[in-house]
Amino acid sequence: MSDVFGDGDAREDENAIDLTPMLDVVFIMLIFFIVTATFVKEAGVDVERPLASTAERQDLANILIAITPEDDVWIDGNRVDVRDMSTLIKRLHAENPQGSVVIQADRDSTHKTLKQVMDAVQKAGVGQVAVAAENEG
């Protein structure tokens, strides 16, 4: 039996949908989300920050230091000894000299540990330091 339209395979090729452009867009979106997700930095532990009426948002912080209620110090998800902290902060600050340090001290941590961390930050030569707090209002 002969085909009225000529070659039947050519007709099927005409009706096929080319998925290449859609796959390219999906692949580019996937790369975009993976790259942007890797720039989010966390201190490594959750702390319960004290309340303050003058709390302001710090967007340029590139070094987050967390102090737990047990006075453990965490930077980038790793527990750090207070004596080694100055060298680590200096190295991290060299990666982004425009950034600042934000210290997230738990409300149950001691002032002694906070003072040791602030001394290490000052010794590392970082000029912009903030202590994180929850906004009261």
TrEMBL record:
UniProt keyword Nucleotide-binding present: no
GO cellular component: plasma membrane
Record-level GO BP terms: protein transport
Keywords, sorted A to Z: Cell membrane, Membrane, Protein transport, Transmembrane, Transmembrane helix, Transport
Record field: transmembrane: 20-40
Main location: membrane
Record InterPro entries: ExbD
Database matches in PANTHER family: BIOPOLYMER TRANSPORT PROTEIN EXBD2, EXBD MEMBRANE COMPONENT OF PMF-DRIVEN MACROMOLECULE IMPORT SYSTEM
UniProt record similarity statement: Belongs to the ExbD/TolR family.
Name by which UniProt lists this protein: Biopolymer transport protein
Organism for this UniProt entry: Oceanococcus atlanticus
